[in-house]
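Supplementary Note 2. Why include the ligand at all?

Several targets in our set were suspected to adopt different conformations when bound, so apo predictions alone were not considered sufficient. For every target with a known small-molecule partner we therefore ran a joint prediction. The input for tetrahydrodeoxyuridine is given below.
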Amino acid sequence: MIKTKEEELMYEEAKKAFDKAYVPYSKFHVGAVVKTKDGKFYSGCNIENASYGLTNCAERTAIFKAVSDGYREFESILVIGDTKDGCKPCGACRQVMAEFMKKDATVYLTNIKDAFEKYTMEQILPYSFLKEDL
Ligand code: THU
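The joint prediction is reproduced in token form.
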């Protein structure tokens, strides 16, 4: 797939985060980048813990960094892992992504080779439970 300059930049930022993953237990690196409505990038990596269940995924690290800086809506997210195809977000991350991304927001699932898959948030988490449902 031919990437735009911005997609290329996002991918490079996510790869830098991937390299910083704290993964002494799984050794499985993941990186993510979210793009804010005003074009700012926030990156994150997965951060594991000796108490395994406390692990924070890369997607949520990136989203929480941006939200704690005052951003509430993301146009796109890019995820990278050392996977065969594009790295798939876990269920918990999909739910957190849906909280801050509209249904037509873009989700790029990539790997460290040549996978560069493009989806919408709606495709990644259909029939989602959202604030409108409360
Ligand atoms: N992981 C992520 O960072 N994102 C996901 O959506 C899937 C899983 C991490 C958590 C853990 O550090 C490692 O991948 C193996 O599950």
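Residues 23, 26, 28, 30, 46, 48, 55, 57-59, 89-90, 93 surround tetrahydrodeoxyuridine (CB under 6 Å). The first helix runs from residue 5 to 19. Comparable summaries for the other entries are listed in the accompanying table.
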